[in-house]
Write a structure and sequence with these properties.
CATH architecture of the largest domain: Orthogonal Bundle
Strand content: under 5%
Shape: extended
Largest sheet: 3 strands, antiparallel
Radius of gyration: 37 Å
Oligomer: single chain
Helix content: 55-70%
Number of helices: 23
CATH superfamily of the largest domain: EF-hand
Number of domains: 3
Length: about 475
């Protein structure tokens, strides 16, 4: 048989052996070179270093978790006053707010924008209104950027253009757009000012911080420029209380800045920018809580009720509020629910000025959720979260007594109770909740009928009162 040998003798040629890799000099040198890390490159070295750091962090976190137990830490202590961390935090906050303030349009910028809008708009032939389409909008944006700077460009975005009502030609009026720019600038400036006063930077204002913000606004409000210096502190206290009544419903003693900015209270305060000569009537000033007339009225009212001049009101003194038309049981419930006991101990309670402001705000804003919540706690005699027919009968009994003492006609309490039930139309026919009062849109009227004989008289004579209001208009 042929063996395949080349020499023809039938013996196989010996196979050539390959030495092991470990014995090869170039392999050993390559492994040694890679092991030092010098040949990996900067990216690979950075990756290794990152893995090492993350591993150390993970091990440290595991160690701290084991030492602290199974409950993780959820509270981080704020830096101490005067510490380096506190100083760094305040400096960072100051620089951030300064940068945001520099990005705002000032009064001259707003005037220049209004001029640009009027010079580059078109007049609607039908209405005479000044309008602009999207091409005009983009052109005005370029002109404003040249004259004012890039800080106005954010107002000329396509999304902002789409926010406004357009006519059949796709045009928007320039006045609503300009008012939108002004309001945005005003709210942003207000937020910056409030954030500067927020000492602990938690997004909430405490009473003294809110009073400081209002004090800083007084020189810029036309209707408050002549306020007596001796009355400034009291005014700020009265004004700040309304913000906390509506923006701090849980009574935690701090109001969220975002909620303050979006509240009607700030808009009402800013109405004092108007000059008194510009058709601001005495009635409008009295209805505005922040007007000087209103603040003086409330202060005088408190001083008149405080017969013993001790700075607080007793139950007997508060009974003279509104010429004594409030019921005895309501006064008792106000002290039970909204007046704290005296610090000296005992069962005596006196209403301080802040509690009196809440009391007045609730009675003057009965139709609001905040005012109705305040009053419902007083109406809920047993704290059950709802009113029964027995509660309505008990509450109205005092109103009925004052009604008869005033020389009015006799009425049936059960009929009034049924009328209240028909007005509210509660979900549960056996009880009325605060939600039912809010949903029926007549909660303020119902509350007035149960706590104030004058409120019941106004409801009983509502048709005559409505006719008296309409007669001057017809003339």
């Amino acid at each position: 048989m042929y063996s395949g040998s080349s020499d023809g003798e039938g013996h196989e040629a010996p196979q050539r052996k390959i030495p092991p890799a470990s014995s090869m000099l170039w392999v050993r040198n390559l492994r040694r070179f890679i092991g030092t890390g010098t040949g990996l490159g900067s990216e690979a070295l950075m990756e290794l270093e990152t893995k090492r750091i993350l591993l150390d962090i993970f091990k440290e976190k595991q160690r701290k978790t084991a030492e602290a137990g199974t409950i993780p830490s959820f509270y981080k202590k704020k830096p101490e006053e005067g510490s380096i961390s506190h100083r760094v935090q305040r400096l960072a906050k100051y620089r951030f707010l300064k940068k945001q303030s520099d990005l705002l349009l000032n009064a001259d910028d707003l005037d220049a924008m209004w001029v640009c809008l009027r010079e580059n708009c078109v007049i609607d032939d039908a209405t005479g209104a000044e309008k602009m389409n999207y091409e005009d909008f983009c052109h005005i944006a370029s002109v404003c950027a040249e004259q004012i700077g890039p800080k106005c460009r954010r107002f000329f975005s396509p999304s902002n253009f789409m926010k406004f009502e357009k006519d059949e030609s796709g045009r928007i009026a320039i006045l609503p757009f300009y008012l939108y720019v002004m309001r945005t600038v005003s709210l942003t400036q207000a937020r910056i000012d409030m954030s500067e006063l927020d000492e602990d930077s938690d997004g909430f204002l405490q009473p003294h911080e809110m009073e400081g913000y209002i004090r800083g606004l007084i020189p810029n409000l036309a209707q408050l420029r002549d306020i007596p210096a001796s009355f400034v502190q009291t005014y700020c206290r009265i004004a700040a209380r309304k913000f906390f009544f509506f923006c701090d419903p849980a009574r935690r003693g701090k109001a969220c800045i975002k909620k303050v900015l979006l509240s009607n209270c700030l808009q009402e305060l800013m109405e004092l920018h108007q000059e008194t000569e510009e058709e601001v009537t005495d009635t409008e000033q009295a209805e505005n809580w922040f007007s000087l007339t209103s603040a003086q009225r409330i202060c005088d009212m408190f001083l008149a009720l405080d017969k013993d001049m001790n700075g607080t009101l007793s139950k007997q003194e508060l009974r003279d509020y509104a010429d004594g038309t409030l019921t005895e049981i309501f006064i008792e419930r106000v002290f039970d629910e909204h007046v704290r006991r005296s610090k000296g101990g005992g069962n005596t309670r006196e209403m301080d000025f802040d509690s009196f402001l809440d009391f007045v705000l609730a009675l003057e804003n009965k139709d609001t959720p905040e005012g109705l919540t305040y009053l419902f706690r007083c109406l809920d005699l047993h704290g059950r979260g709802h009113l029964t027919t027995v509660d309505i009968h008990t509450l109205f009994r005092d109103v009925h007594q004052k009604w008869i003492e005033g020389g009015n006609y006799e009425l049936c309490i059960e009929d009034v109770r049924d009328e209240i039930w028909d007005m509210v139309k509660p979900v549960d026919p056996l009880k009325i909740t605060s939600t039912d009062l809010l949903n029926c849109k007549q909660g303020g009227t119902v509350a007035s009928m149960l706590i104030d004989v004058r409120g019941f008289w106004a409801h009983d004579n509502r048709e005559n009162l409505l006719q008296e209001e309409e007669e001057p208009e017809e003339e």
